[in-house]
Write the structure tokens for this entry.
Amino acid sequence: MAAANKKRILYVQRRAPYGSLYAQEALEMLLMGAAFGQRVSIAFLDDGVFQLKAEQAPSALGMKNFGRMVRALELHDLEGIYVERESLDERNLKSGQLVLPAEVVRRAELSQLMAEQDLVLSF
Amino acid sequence: MSTLHLVNKSPFEKDAFDSCLRHALPGSAVLLIEDGIYGALQGTAPGDCFGQATELQRYVLVEDLRARGFGAEHLVVGVQVIDYEGFVDLAVAHELVQSWL
Amino acid sequence: MQFALLVNEGPYQHQAADSAWHFARAALAKGHGISRVFFYHDGVYNGTRLGVVPQDERHIPERWALLAKEHDVDLVICVAAAQRRGILDAAESRRHGKGADNLAEGFRIGGLGQLIESGIEADRLLVFGD
């Protein structure tokens, strides 16, 4: 498919992991949908930035390690992996504490990015 | 490109309303549905905020408003009350519909 | 215009399934099409046929099925989300040796690809969730 015909799809992650399954199933959809050859990006903002925290250790809960799932994003040909600067700051998270090197963007840039999509998927 | 933002959460409970208003670009539309309608009530902090967001086209879904015991007379100035038919028209008029869940 | 809808919550517990249905009905009444409704997360519970609903309440699964029948709407339950939550059609039930199935008439089980396809092909995709 020619680049011009590809749809820009943004997955918006605004929820923390573990407390609910939304984040995990959203990621499952992205990882599956990435194979469809569209221009796929993912943005972490608000509590969604907690999904990126390094050193997640849920084994005592018997739950799947979400941080490991997030790292799988790097194996896919994504257009962008974005994390919002203001959301990190509000939660006292540093970009060095993240499980993968996401592109840190200002809220204003992210707002612009959202508006440029063909499709925004929220969960 | 213009976006229709949908907010279905009470601003007193969740951050969807605040986050939407922080990210919606001037000229885009915001429609409050379900518990989101509580974000447009007069005499409340979120309502004041919504009323002052004059750079946005602001709408409230009347079916959800009435169901909860409120009417257009309870809303801040500048907000348009629409029904499901109007909701469909808004979705047609905007190339992108973004839900703030 | 062709709409596709994504429903992320089950019936009754949250208004999302109601809102999606009302939107679909309003869109169809205006001459638009609803190409597909895709059910994800707890939204897959919209497709159970075992719900016993009090007579004075709306029957959400039946309401979806009726809409699908009258307007040729494709109601797709995500297989991955459904398996986790125990929503199975006859074939899935046999395949996993479960001995019972519970998918309501009018719905079908499908993969995540169907949602992506809807997102690509429909003019608009609306997400209803919590």
About this structure: Chain A is about 25% helix and 20% strand. Chain A touches chain C through 15 residues (CB under 8 Å). Chain A has one domain: 3-122.
